[in-house]
From TrEMBL:
Protein name per UniProt: Fumarylacetoacetate hydrolase family protein
Pfam families according to UniProt: FAA_hydrolase
Gene Ontology MF: a single term: hydrolase activity
Family per similarity comment: Belongs to the FAH family.
Alphabetical keyword list: Hydrolase, Metal-binding
Keyword DNA damage: no
Stretches assigned to the Fumarylacetoacetase-like C-terminal domain: 77-280
Length: 289
């Protein structure tokens, strides 16, 4: 079956056609599916069947400035800490026996290009592969987990380390949820586009300098294992996001630390998905959504 990628193009649902073109889904489907990007995940199986059979034109240019987050209003956002062996080693921590789970609040979601207001404190980068749920998952075994994943996208788990570690108990979710601190995109790509969805190259640069380079094969807990673990506790809903962890090279672990400053440009790349670019601005300027 043909692979598929979808975009949030000018705040409308678009289906990738060819290398850099897309079709407006509402128009191409004669209104069968609406323009609301988030709504498609509630009808993912039906939509995927239509999209795979679509053989019409792509009348829209896929241009960076026109792209928004492919999942703009996720019901739930899960994030996994310390999920790469090399990242655990650079942090000097033992490998976890079970996934370490926190959340990024949905208001932190932003698109794959634009400005992000840098708050005061120590702002760090964490490139992550993000899994998007396409079918309700409740007590799903790992062997069937991919059936519940609509696709994959690129993400950054941006973090303000001082608030994150503020005591007496850490504030992981709050420190990682400033406006714009969960950029995702540029597309959602179905799993069948990857030769091995458990082994994908990921990385990020700051001002053109390589910071993180890794492969998802280094994950301690795979995406199917994460779906099994999370869905044993609560239902995963269509449109939910799972930020799956980051490889070594984060700014806080460098000597000296390399934290993001006003004016820095962060470039994020994931094999088979594409590239995101963000510039960090004075905190008086709000994140561009």
């Amino acid at each position: 079956m043909p692979a598929m990628r979808i975009f949030n193009l000018d705040h409308r649902l678009a289906l990738g056609v060819g290398h850099d073109r897309a079709a407006d889904v509402e128009k191409a489907s004669d209104g069968r599916f609406g323009a609301d990007v988030q709504a498609v995940y509630e009808r993912w199986d039906e939509f995927a069947g239509w999209a795979r059979a679509y053989d019409g034109p792509g009348e829209l240019a896929v241009e960076p400035g026109r792209l928004g987050p492919p999942v703009p209003r996720p019901p739930q956002v899960f994030a996994i800490g310390l999920n790469y062996r090399d990242h655990a080693a650079e942090a000097g921590l033992a490998l976890p026996e079970r996934p370490l789970v926190f959340t990024k609040f949905p208001a932190s979601i932003t698109g794959p290009h634009g400005n992000i207001a840098r708050p005061a404190g120590s702002v760090d980068f964490e490139v992550e592969l993000v899994a998007v749920i396409g079918r309700r998952a409740e007590r799903v075994p790992a062997a069937r987990a991919w059936e519940h994943v609509a696709g994959l996208t690129a993400g950054q788990d941006l973090s303000e380390r001082e608030l994150q570690s503020a005591g007496p108990t850490p504030q992981f979710s709050l420190g990682k949820s400033f406006a714009g601190f969960a950029p995702i995109g540029p597309a959602l790509v179905t799993v069948d586009e990857f030769a091995d969805p458990d082994d994908i190259a990921i990385g990020c640069d700051v001002n053109g300098e390589a910071m993180q380079r890794g492969r998802t094969a280094d994950m301690i807990f795979t995406i199917p294992q994460l779906v099994e673990h999370l869905s044993a506790v609560l239902p995963l809903l269509p449109g939910d996001l799972i930020f799956t962890g980051t490889p070594k090279g984060v700014g806080i672990a460098r000597r000296p630390p390399r934290l993001l400053q006003v004016g820095d440009e962060l470039t994020t790349r994931i094999e088979g998905i594409g590239e995101m670019r963000h510039r960090f601005t004075h905190p008086a300027l709000r994140a561009s959504l």
